[in-house]
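Weekly modeling sync, notes
Attendees: S.R. (lead), two postdocs, one rotation student

Agenda item 3: backlog of single-chain predictions. S.R. asked that every request posted to the team notebook include the full sequence so nobody has to chase files. The rotation student volunteered to paste the first one in as an example of the format we agreed on. Action items at the bottom.

Example entry:
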Amino acid sequence: MLTVNNITMRFGARVLFEDVTTTFFTGRRYAITGPNGAGKSTFMKILTGELEPSKGDVTRPKKLGILRQDQFAFDEHRVIDTVIMGNGRLWKALQEREALHAKPHDQLTDKDGMRMGELEGIVGDEDGYTAEADAAILLDGLGLEEPLHERKMRELQGGQKVRVLLAQALFGHPQVLLLDEPTNHLDLDSVHWLQDYLCEYEGVLIVISHDRHFLNSVCTHVADIDYQTIIMYNGGYDDMVIAKTSIRSRIESENAQREKKIAQLNEFIARFSAGTRSAQATSRKKEVERLQTTELARSNIARPFIRFQMDQHSGKHPLEIKSVVKEYDGVKVFKPFSANVDRGEKIALMGRNGTGKTTLLKSLVRNAPGFISDEEKQFPINGGTVGWGHNVAVGYFAQDHSETIRKGTTAIEWLHEFDPMATQEQLRGVLGQMLFSGEEALKPTGALSGGEAARLIFCKLMLQKPNVLVLDEPTNHLDLESINALNISLQKYLGTVLFVTHDHDVIDEVATRIWHFEGGRVEDFKGPYSEYLVYAQEKAS
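Predicted structure, as returned to the notebook:
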């Protein structure tokens, strides 16, 4: 059990939440929700003890599992040791035991012998004799195979380090798990493994994630940060949205009825307050006071509006791929791949990280007509051809999208470069749809967050109006509201889409065809994700 008592958090005059008291109970799995900037990560840091609140305190159990954000803190340690460090009591005992074992035998004292006995007891209590095997199971489940387990952390890539730190948080049977964005850098297979693991977890789970399907699958309760407080809801994310909308709609409806009644009473008071019916007017004044509407605090939820349109349709066959091959240092990323794409198809590229999804997209857009930069056209392939069809205009969202936005200008000036004929009013309209209102349109491009950069590129794509969209990890850095808006826009889009994402709901609700990357080859499945899952299960059995 973990309890927060009368917590308030302010940054200057800005209040994130005020006088919050709530308890997180054992056996329950909580999502912390709210839009970007609402204070989710701040609240998580208060729970972990990294940050002191402006007021109030937190009561924690002894054993916490925390997803650490510092990827460089363990660079000199083996991967397997980094995971075991998740159980601080065990790691400390193992280190002390190793130091005693290293002492020359003739220098060991009786006190050392007694201490070694105590340490063996701690190691036994904390499952230390199976620690490396238990850590390896976690690493394997998260897609880090055995050859990596003995390497130093500094040898790993950023995404791999995050997986190790996630395994560290899960290790050692913590009483409370505090996970901030655990699905970042995970492929869909790893996300599904983590879902299953957490659903079996018996302690208190508190998690922040922008993956709606993950939250609906894992969480039993939602702690929503809004209205400068934290409101607890039963159920998953979708249950919270329904309940929250219902409560607000009910209050708004009651307020409308009360305001209508108040208007009628005020009209009566104005007509008769000075005449023979003044007593009745006084009575009506008291009724007006009683009927005062329930004040609705302003919600901090902001919903972007994404609508991808086309200037013209492409031909019926916008893309033909013949035996495309890409190598790095003489090693093929995938075997020669061929496919024909029909207009209106929406193809999800799926597979473990590092299997070649981004490489294939780069191999396709390198000679695409439309809105491709000179740098993107320089990407070399090692064989095969890519043929784009009649009237095709491609819009591209790169995985490293922040790097594609020119620094040294403002958001609105950068956007104007892609449609010099657009008026300031038109540009501000598009920016407003993506939550760049007022002065935010003048924000320097060098100061944009990851989510703001993504939203600005969606503005660019809406201006360009391509008939083929190639999107590489567009949901990274987006909050749940933005991901939902993107999902809906892609479903309604009449053009052709090739996209990479690890968001289950976007794949499930958008894709009409799957390209699955595994074992150095790409499998072309012509059907939606739900049918692909059935096919994959039958194939595995």
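Discussion: group reviewed the output briefly. The CA atoms of residues 397 and 474 lie 7 Å apart.
Action items: rotation student to repeat for the remaining queue; S.R. to check formatting next week.
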